[in-house]
Amino acid sequence: MIEIKNLVKKYSNKTVLNKINFTVSEGEILGFLGPNGAGKSTTMNIITGYIAPTNGTVVIDDVDIMKNPKKAKLKIGYLPEIPPLYIDMTVKSYLDFMYNLKKIKFSRQNHIEEVCKSVEIQDVYNKIIKKLSKGYKQRVGIAQALLGYPPVIILDEPTVGLDPNQIISVRKLIKSLGKKHTVIISSHILSEIQAVSDRVVVISKGKIVADNTVEGIEKMSSRDSNIVLQIDGDQEEVENVLKTVEGIKKIKDIFFKEKNVYEYIIEFDTNIDVRRNIFKILSEKDFTILKFDIVKPSLEDVFIKLTSANYVENNNNDDSLNYIKDSENNNGSGKNDSNI
Less Cβ crowding at N or C end of the chain, within 10 Å? Predict the structure, then answer.
């Protein structure tokens, strides 16, 4: 449905996007994730035809947006980070205006009513937009993006400034859009992407640093898991014993907890089940294990690592960042081929 190839954007001598490549399949909800200033909004603006790339191509449903921008834009509904609302209009007059602007051919009243129902704004239909809550304003912004039923919906930071209840409501709405549209949602908030996306593309400093399912990124994080042990026993003796256990790479930290009890943070080889080795050797030495946890980094930790300067520079071509190829059998989204 969407294909981005070798996308480059430069402003004078500054490269904002550096050979961006990714695709989005029909019916997929793609989370486009990155810290502020990573190049997310620039990418969104190029995909929607707001600005031109320095190099590269964007193809929307087989239409190159640079070669045939009018036809390509008809296939896109776009909600920028700041919704393009005329706040002195009522919701009805605003959607009427956008209907005319987009030259939509569907029956006006039925179409606008269907869109309002899908985003649940029927109860504010006759209200002035400036009097609406932030959450309702976002919904009105999404409604204008849905007018004409474009196959592609692009949402840039759609929950910025919303309260928790509004965020949950908008997330449910975005999730429902994936049943009828291909969706790209851009955000710098990992939990936002995790809640609604089938797949995640992470951008940092103008480069793609990960392209994977949420589950795939979680698997990537398992490599950095640590074992946390609390052991009753002489620190030096316990430390020497642990160093002999097969699968333990190193003891990263040791913390005093109470008399003769220390906590050990251990890096281990994830290809070896070290639990049995640890229990066996420590029990043979008559040390008491008071706590044993395998602690995986949170997705936030993984995001911080992926977007760190050193990681971007040193691991941009790492094969581990590639999208899980098995999912290509389902159009890259884990969904079937039904017409949606």
Answer: C
**Side-chain half-sphere exposure of 107, counting CA atoms within 13 A:** 4
Strands in 248-258's sheet, in edge-to-edge order, are 248-258, 261-268, 226-232, 288-295
Tell me how far the alpha carbon of residue 290 is from its chain's centroid.
38
Tokens of 187: 């955000």
What residue spans of the chain are helical by DSSP H?
Answer: 40-47, 69-73, 91-101, 108-119, 134-146, 164-177, 190-196, 214-221, 235-242, 274-284, 299-306, 309-315
- For 235, the token pair is 């620190």
**Which amino acid does the sequence have at 32?**
F
**The sheet that has 2-11: what strands, in order across it?**
14-24, 2-11, 55-60, 63-64
Distance CA 57, CA 165 (A): 39
Q: Which helix (H) or strand (E) holds 55?
A: strand 55-60
**Residues 297-318: pLDDT tens digits?**
666 777 777 777 655 555 554 4
* Single-letter residue type at 267: E
CA distance 142 to 158: 9
Write the CA distances from 150 to 68, 74, 167, 263, 308, integer angstroms.
16, 7, 24, 57, 36
Report the alpha-carbon distance of residue 151 to residue 182 in Å, rounded: 6
Whole-angstrom distance, CA of residue 95 vs CA of residue 80:
16
Mean pLDDT of 276-302: 86
Which one-letter DSSP state was computed for residue 133? -
Rounded mean pLDDT, 223-244: 90
SS3 state of residue 211: strand
**pLDDT tens, 154-205?**
998 888 878 888 888 888 888 888 888 999 998 887 777 888 888 999 898 8
Q: What DSSP element (H or E) covers 58?
A: strand 55-60
Q: What burial class does residue 252 get, using C-beta atoms within 10 Å of its C-beta: 0-12 exposed, 13-18 middle, 19+ buried?
A: exposed
